[in-house]
């Protein structure tokens, strides 16, 4: 239940649907298995799995939704081998060369014939919506998975005016300054891992783990112009995380203090535990997100919005 990554989006205007309107919108596209000739399906699932019935989980003004993707696994090497075998068979039989257009047609036919026998896998992506604060946090480090969720939500609701959360100062510039000085804005603490990237074209990358980032070696890399592209941070003894230069939060960890609080409030049943976890997580994010944007110079809001 605890999110492990964050891709953050901001509503650019008032949310165009209510809680009462969102649930039936989600019910239009419930998750389902792939049909025999489908490469994948997308649909909404219950956020708490078998411990809930509704596709929309609501608590203390926060909404939780879950996108489930089922896809057939068809390795490229399998398709390639089958295509090569088919091409060799036709060329030997007909004494002619197979060119690209016909090759592509054969490939499509092979894919269609193999799909019904392919294994499937499922992925679930959670998103927390804070209507009062106007943001959506998606639990993924993949922009493609986040866009799948937002696109389907937009399709089901008819409108979803969101944009990626932007800040006024480049994260890499801020993180570089924090490592140089050994100090981060109030509430944030620089930890012991970072990625240093050369700003020159085709420049190198240095990954530092369990290092004193104030050491002469690290500082020398910064002196010659390298920039911090990823940095591990702690926030108020509540969170630890890796922030990257695209404002993506990875390896997010909610500390034991919050986990213990959720255990105490959740009671003995799993549904209660999940609900308590969701509430504490959402409230913590509501404090952390503005603190992060402030540390990066404040939120950059386009003119006219």
Automatic annotation (TrEMBL):
Q: What is its main location?
A: cytoplasm
Which is a GO BP term held by this UniProt record? regulation of DNA recombination
> GO CC terms for this protein?
bacterial nucleoid; cytoplasm
Q: Keyword check for Cytoplasm, yes or no.
A: yes
Asked whether the UniProt record includes Ribosomal protein among its keywords, one would answer no
Where on the tree of life does the source sit, at the highest rank?
Bacteria
User: Pfam families per the record?
Assistant: RdgC
List the keywords (alphabetical): Cytoplasm, DNA recombination
One term of GO molecular function = double-stranded DNA binding
Query: Sorted alphabetically, which InterPro entries does this protein's record hold?
Result: RdgC
Q: Where in the cell is it found?
A: Cytoplasm, Nucleoid
**Function noted in UniProt:** May be involved in recombination.
What family does the entry list?
Belongs to the RdgC family.
Q: What is this protein called?
A: Recombination-associated protein RdgC
């Amino acid at each position: 239940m605890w999110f492990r990554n964050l891709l953050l989006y901001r509503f650019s205007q008032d949310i165009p649907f209510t809680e009462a309107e969102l649930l039936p919108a989600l019910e239009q596209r419930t998750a389902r298995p792939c049909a025999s000739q489908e490469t994948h399906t997308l649909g909404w699932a219950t956020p708490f799995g078998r411990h809930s019935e509704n596709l929309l989980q609501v608590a203390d003004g926060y909404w939780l939704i879950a996108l489930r993707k089922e896809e057939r696994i068809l390795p490229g090497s399998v398709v390639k081998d089958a295509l090569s075998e088919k091409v060799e068979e036709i060329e030997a039989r007909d004494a002619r060369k197979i060119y690209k257009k016909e090759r592509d047609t054969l490939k499509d036919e092979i894919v269609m014939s193999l799909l019904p026998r392919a294994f499937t896998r499922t992925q679930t992506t959670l998103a927390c919506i804070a209507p009062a604060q106007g943001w959506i946090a998606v639990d993924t480090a993949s922009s493609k998975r986040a866009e799948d969720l937002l696109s389907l939500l937009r399709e089901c609701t008819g409108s979803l005016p969101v944009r990626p959360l932007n800040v006024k100062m480049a994260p890499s510039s801020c993180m570089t300054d924090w490592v140089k000085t050994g100090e981060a804005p109030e509430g944030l603490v620089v930890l012991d891992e970072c990625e240093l990237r050369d700003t020159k074209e085709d420049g190198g990358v240095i990954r530092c783990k369990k290092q004193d980032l104030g050491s002469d070696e690290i500082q020398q890399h910064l002196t010659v112009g390298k920039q911090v592209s990823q940095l591990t941070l702690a926030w108020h003894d509540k969170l630890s995380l890796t922030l990257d230069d695209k404002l993506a939060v990875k390896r997010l960890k909610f500390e034991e203090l919050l986990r213990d609080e959720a255990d105490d409030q959740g009671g003995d049943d799993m549904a209660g535990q999940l609900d308590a976890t969701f509430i504490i997580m959402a409230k913590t994010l509501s404090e952390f997100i503005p603190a992060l944007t402030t540390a990066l110079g404040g939120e950059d809001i386009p003119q006219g919005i």
